[in-house]
Amino acid sequence: MDMASTLLAVAVTLVFFFQALTWTRRGKNKRLPPGPKGLPIIGNLLMIGKNPHHDFQRLAQKYGPIMHLRLGLMPVIVVSSAEAAELFLKTHDLVFASRPPHEGSKVVCYNQQNLVFSPYGSYWRNMRKMCTLELLSNHKINSFRSMRMEELHGCVQYIREAATAGGVVDLSSTVSSFSTDISCRMIIGKKYDHDNFSEKGFKATLREGMQIGATINLADYIPQIRALDLQGLTKRMKIIAKDFDDFFEKIIDEHVRSKDENRVKDFVDVMLGFMGSEETDEYRVERDTIKAIILDMLTASMDTSAAAIDWTLAELIRHPQEMKKVQKEVKNVIGMRRMVEESDLEKLKYLDMVVKESFRLHPVAPLLIPHVSREDFTVNGFDIPKGARIFVNAWAISRDERVWTDAERFYPERFIGSDIDLRGRNFELIPFGAGRRGCPGMQLGLTVVRLVVAQMVHCFDWELPNGTSGSDLDMREEFGIVCPRANHLLAIPTWRLKD
Ligand code: HEM
Question: Which atom, in ligand 1's list, is nearest to the CA of 446?
Fold first, then answer.
């Protein structure tokens, strides 16, 4: 070992020692929520496996709905009941409305200038207002209705051809391509272009970024070793960041040069309209802001909706009775001579229950996005330290046997006569989060999920390949910020509509 490495090792050890000492002293005078004992320095990191939401649920059964752990040097609070979630996301929402430092977002999202990871404060408020009022308003979402239908027609046509040929369709990748295309057209004004991106490809790069973003990065939990980048994640993120930055630069330049005044304004157009507007200074948008928000909108919209559609279709294929009920409802409401339109959706009440039930069993962001405590605070008699990461286990909450009868069963009828919805008012079902940091794209996400599910079951009957029965369908999940099916959903379609 050379002198520099020795000094570095000594320095890191000393920092750890003093940090651990401070942490223990601070912890001693506090009444932290109950939780498992951790090891020095790494805390409870080894207790968390491939599916942290499952591990947290198991631990919470022993330690309770407000549980304390330590991941590395960071205090972590896991919230696992509807009542506790209400305390953190509604009653004391303001205290927990920030996001923790996130190495991945720092590197890729221009120092956490995106909406998803920006800390609570005036920048976040500004961006949130811009996204809610200018990009994700009902009016703006509706201006892309015909584009969504055009893409959906293409998708249905593709499946129809497979049906004619009697082939198997990879529903997961078909839905994912559709979702990518509508997101790109809405956000950057066109489908992504292979030639304009690095060799690895746009979707693969985006997916890699999300996968790294969801990996427990030691730099976030033991900041003293950030510079060592022990897992090599920051290095990989820097490559991704460069690819995206080049791509977004081209997109912005194309928009600045475009003279076509008549096209529907995409998100980049809208944001460029606010850039450098000195007089109004309405949203203080810089070039980096636009790039960070483009990435946010793409990552937040593409995989979330696709994963939710995939889970719902998988549940319906596993449950033929429920599948028949949705098909019957759509047939009664719109007949067999045309496809479903967005304007039909509000009449489809059973479909609504099916989608809710699927979100209950498969919230696509099972731990929401981590919140952080902005100050030392007391909740339910427990001291929550400033800087504690708050994980709300939406997955465990919506499978809580104390609230949901026969919680593991897919049973849409449970919502008959119930006014529980999934918009963040009922804390037993919060797939879109709740409160200040709740999802601003919920309306768009729900519209796309309902529309595509309705279309897929109205236009086609579905059968599993190789005589597989529904009960054998692999329903394992792959944990990430978004949690899709671990394996693609493959099925054989048969065309149903009358020409
Ligand atoms: C099925 C679709 C979707 C689901 C299930 C979903 C779910 C979520 C969840 C759970 C959160 C975190 C809430 C929290 O931390 O408390 C979130 C945040 C967010 N979502 Fe969505 N989302 C979906 C679609 C969308 C769409 C279509 C967009 C925009 C195009 C979007 C944009 C965002 C943004 C920007 C945030 C961060 C908000 C903030 O931190 O202030 N989402 N979403």
Answer: 1
Verify whether ligand 1 is closer than 6 Å to residue 365 (CB atom). Answer: yes
ipTM of the complex: 0.99
65 lines ligand 1 (CB under 6 A): no
pLDDT in tens, the chain (499 residues): 454 444 455 455 555 555 555 555 555 668 999 999 999 989 999 999 999 999 999 999 999 999 999 999 999 999 999 999 999 999 999 999 999 998 888 998 888 889 999 999 999 999 999 999 989 999 999 999 999 999 999 999 999 999 999 999 999 999 999 999 999 999 999 987 666 677 778 888 888 888 888 788 889 999 889 999 999 999 999 999 999 999 999 999 999 998 777 778 999 999 998 887 655 556 788 899 999 999 999 999 989 999 999 999 999 999 999 999 999 999 999 999 999 999 999 999 999 999 999 999 999 999 999 999 999 999 999 999 999 999 999 999 999 999 999 999 999 999 999 999 999 999 999 999 999 999 999 999 999 999 999 999 999 999 999 888 988 999 999 988 889 999 999 999 999 999 8
CA proximity to 101, closest of 73, 142, 136: 73
Ligand 1 geometric centre to CA of 111 (Å): 20
User: Apex CA 140: angle with CA 138 and CA 145, to 5°?
Assistant: 90
**Strand ranges across the sheet with 66-71:** 66-71, 74-79, 389-392, 371-372
**Does ligand 1 come within 6 angstroms of the Cβ of 441?**
yes
Does 220 sit in the ligand 1 pocket, CB within 6 Å? no
Nearest of 20, 19, 78 to residue 47 by alpha carbon:
78
Whether residue 75 has its Cβ less than 6 Å from ligand 1: no
Give the distance (Å) from ligand 1 centre to CA of residue 306: 13
Residues 6+ apart with CB under 8 A from 77: 33, 66, 67, 68, 373, 384, 388, 389, 390, 391
Looking at ligand 1, which residue's alpha carbon is closest to its atom 42?
A: 441
| Ligand 1 atom nearest to 363, measured from its CA | 5
Q: Looking at ligand 1, which residue's alpha carbon is closest to its atom 43? A: 439
